[in-house]
C-alpha cells in the first residue's frame, strides 16, 4: 500500500524486536555520562528556588528516578545520598517561602519539593520521611478557594491540578492516600468544575462594522 506520509522514510517499520546492539543496557553509559555532566554543572551556592521545574529539587528527583532502576544498582546508594543532600536544602528553602500562593505548586513550588523529599527519604530508609509528607498535606487549604491564583487556579504547574498530580505520585510510590476520604476531594472536584464553566460558555461574537458613510 502506498505510503500517505508527506516525506520519505528510509527506515523499516518496527517489528517488535531491537536491532543488534540496541538494548536497555546499552544506554547505561550514556545516562551515566549525562547524570555526571548535570552534577558537575550544579551551582556551588543557591539553586533551591524554582521547584522541580528549574531548581536543585529537579536534579534530586532525577537521581531518585535513576536510583530506582535495577540497571543502576551500583549507583543507587551514592545517587540517593546526593539526592538527600540536594532536597534537604530545598525543603529548608520552601519552609521559609513567603509566597503563600505558589507554595502548593507541584512543579514550581513547595508541594513538589515536599513530595519528592518524602520519596527520597523513604527510598533511603530514613524514618522521618513522614515529615515532608505532613508538610505536603498541610498545603491543601491553599488550593481550596475557587480562584486562589490569578494565573490559573487549576494549572498543572502552580494550581490544583499540580497538587493532585503530586498526591497521585505519592500514592503510586508510597501507597499513601492523600485526603481522598476528606472534604478536600469534594472541594477540589467542585471547584475545578466551577473554574472551567466560564470557558464552556458561548463567547459574544464581534458585531460587523458598517464602513459606509
TrEMBL record:
It holds the Pfam family LANC_like. It comes from the Eukaryota. GO terms for biological process: carbohydrate metabolic process; peptide modification. One of its GO terms (cellular component) is plasma membrane. SUPFAM superfamilies: LanC-like (SSF158745). This is LanC 3.
Amino acid at each position: 500500500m502506498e505510503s500517505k506520509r508527506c516525506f520519505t522514510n528510509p527506515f523499516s517499520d518496527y517489528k517488535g524486536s531491537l536491532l543488534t546492539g540496541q538494548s536497555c543496557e546499552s544506554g547505561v553509559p550514556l545516562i551515566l555520562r549525562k547524570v555526571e555532566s548535570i552534577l558537575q554543572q550544579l551551582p556551588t551556592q543557591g539553586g533551591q528556588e524554582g521547584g522541580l521545574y528549574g531548581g536543585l529539587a529537579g536534579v534530586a528527583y532525577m537521581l531518585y528516578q535513576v536510583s530506582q532502576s535495577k540497571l543502576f544498582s551500583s549507583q543507587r546508594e551514592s545517587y540517593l545520598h546526593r539526592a538527600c543532600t540536594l532536597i534537604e536544602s530545598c525543603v529548608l528553602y520552601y519552609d521559609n517561602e513567603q509566597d503563600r500562593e505558589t507554595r502548593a505548586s507541584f512543579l514550581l513550588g513547595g508541594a513538589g519539593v515536599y513530595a519528592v523529599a518524602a520519596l527520597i527519604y523513604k527510598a533511603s530508609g530514613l524514618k522521618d520521611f513522614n515529615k515532608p509528607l505532613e508538610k505536603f498535606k498541610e498545603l491543601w487549604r491553599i488550593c481550596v478557594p475557587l480562584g486562589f491564583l490569578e494565573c490559573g487556579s487549576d494549572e498543572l504547574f502552580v494550581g490544583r491540578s499540580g497538587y493532585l498530580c503530586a498526591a497521585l505520585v505519592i500514592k503510586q510510590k508510597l501507597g499513601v492516600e492523600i485526603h481522598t476520604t476528606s472534604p478536600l476531594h469534594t472541594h477540589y472536584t467542585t471547584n475545578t468544575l466551577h473554574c472551567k464553566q466560564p470557558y464552556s460558555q458561548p463567547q459574544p461574537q464581534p458585531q460587523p462594522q458598517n464602513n459606509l458613510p
